[in-house]
Amino acid sequence: MSTYGTPGAGPVVHDPMTLPVDDNVNKYTFCVELKGGQWFLQKGKMIAYYGSIDFNGIGHGRLDRLVRTSFHSPLHASDWVVAEGSGKMLLADRAFDVNSYDLDDGNLTIRAGNLLAFQPSLALKQSIVPGFLTLIGTGKFVAASNGPVVFMEPPIRVDPQALVGWADCPSPCHHYDHGYLTGVLGGLRAMTGLGGVSGEEHQFEFAGAGTVLLQSSETLMAEAATGAVPPEPGVPGGGGTAPGGYGPQSSGAPRLPGQLGDLQRRFGL
Amino acid sequence: MFRLQGSKVLAVDMTGDAVKAKNGSMVAYDGQMTFKKLSGGGEGLRGMVTRRLTGEQMTVMEVKGQGTCWFADRASEINLVGLRGDTLYVEAGNLLATDAGLRTGTTFTGLRGAAQGNGLFTTTVEGHGQAAITSDGPAVVLRVSPQYPLIVDPGAYVAHQGNVRQSFQSGVTFRTLLGEGGGEAFQIRFEGDGLVYVQPSERNTIAGDL
């Protein structure tokens, strides 16, 4: 047996036997056990693994069936990879807090940049709300957040930067404090910041039954592309009138798996 | 004697002995301390020339005295490593402090260093004593044993110790060039007997997004 990391001396040493199964190793690292199964994960979030695991882009022909059944937003397929094989795999994202969540025949909508990995028994779909993804079904998924996640019950109004996602809430909408924003003085305040803007005049409001997930900081995670939606009339974010600020998804034509990818985005141009 | 105060500050209790620490990493001390810059990391003229040639730059100071000295580096997490005659391989930028009795040097890492984007050479620490290494987020220590080799993303690798062979494996296929790669184009495989320190964050590497 190894002579390194004798008990009682120094930090905890993990090996394939002591690593947790589908659970957190510490607040920032999550361990997934694969026994011949598959997991979807965001590109580049694997930090280490034991065993033999293959990583394939979703455009991989062999995975077409899997993508059809549990990956319903093929238009951003190349940001995701499928890990398959057997062994234990560690996931982490820029030293952000990482947590796993179980869905039991449920649905949850999450900011695209926060979702790290999910089991193929869940179906991933683009949300109608731009920049968000919805998971439907039964299974486990892993999400990152800046600081620990807090669960809140609606009715609630939340800061846009603190919102991670929501489960079962039927009506996410914008809310403005009109006392601050209307009238000449309000307009001046909003435009110049003179006379006291609190920076909190705009919130997201949730009503109905469900759960809202908040992160305990207002630092946003980097946006992940959710893919383009079909340019039909009536589709938010679709068509030529896509709102700015959602990065590649407002760039026009939809992209299909297998198509020559967003090379310029990959190289950070 | 090294101990952690919180996870981001290293406290060293000294009774007339010395430690080597990254230049400028002292945040506080009590008692009597002297700080002396060690040219060439205390590795002598040969070590100095090697470091200059290999680009594995390390500016080190020697702290000596009586009392307690606290070290920290840009609020990064600190991990203590105990060495009992074996060798720790770590990037110079991730090495915060070592016992004065430990020898430091430079070694060739080959392709792994190139994939990480921090050069073809790395720093070695050997002897008996303690060292402190920094990481972005608390490092996970993973054991490598003959029956369980470990594969690590170059961007998350921090350090390793023990009798470990490393090889470079590449998953680059024509799909990578089409922009449909598996996201893990370059990996380092560790085999043998030892420990690998992995941080929960990936540095930007050449192949980071492929």
Explain what this protein looks like in three dimensions.
Chain B: InterPro entries: AIM24, AIM24_sf, Trp_RNA-bd_attenuator-like_dom. Chain B: It comes from Streptomyces actinomycinicus. Chain B: It holds the Pfam family AIM24. Chain B: This is AIM24 family protein. The complex is a heterodimer of chains A (269) and B (210). Chain A contains four helices and 15 strands. Chain A has helices at 64-70, 178-181, 183-192, 263-266; strands at residues 13-14, 23-26, 29-42, 46-57, 80-91, 97-111, 115-118, 122-126, 132-145, 149-152, 156-158, 163-167, 173-176, 202-206, 211-215. The radius of gyration of chain A is 21 Å and the shape is globular. In chain A, strand 2 (23-26) and strand 3 (29-42) form a beta hairpin. The longest helix of chain A has 10 residues, at 183-192. Chain A has 269 residues and is mainly β. In chain A, the strands form two sheets. In chain A, strands 2, 3, 4, 5, 6, 7, 8, 9, 10, 12 and 15 form an eleven-stranded antiparallel beta sheet that branches. In chain B, a hairpin with a 3-residue loop joins strand 1 and strand 2. Chain B has helices spanning 44-54, 111-116, 174-177, and strands at residues 2-5, 9-22, 26-38, 60-71, 77-90, 95-99, 103-108, 121-135, 140-144, 150-152, 157-170, 186-198. In chain B, strands 1, 2, 3, 4, 5, 6, 7, 8, 9, 10, 11 and 12 form a twelve-stranded antiparallel beta sheet that branches. The radius of gyration of chain B is 18 Å and the shape is globular. Helix content of chain B is 10%, strand content 56%. The model of chain B is unreliable at 206-210 (pLDDT under 50). Chain B has one domain (2-198): 4-Layer Sandwich (Double-stranded beta-helix). The interface between A and B is large, with 53 and 45 residues. Strand 4 (46-57) of chain A pairs antiparallel with strand 10 (150-152) of chain B.
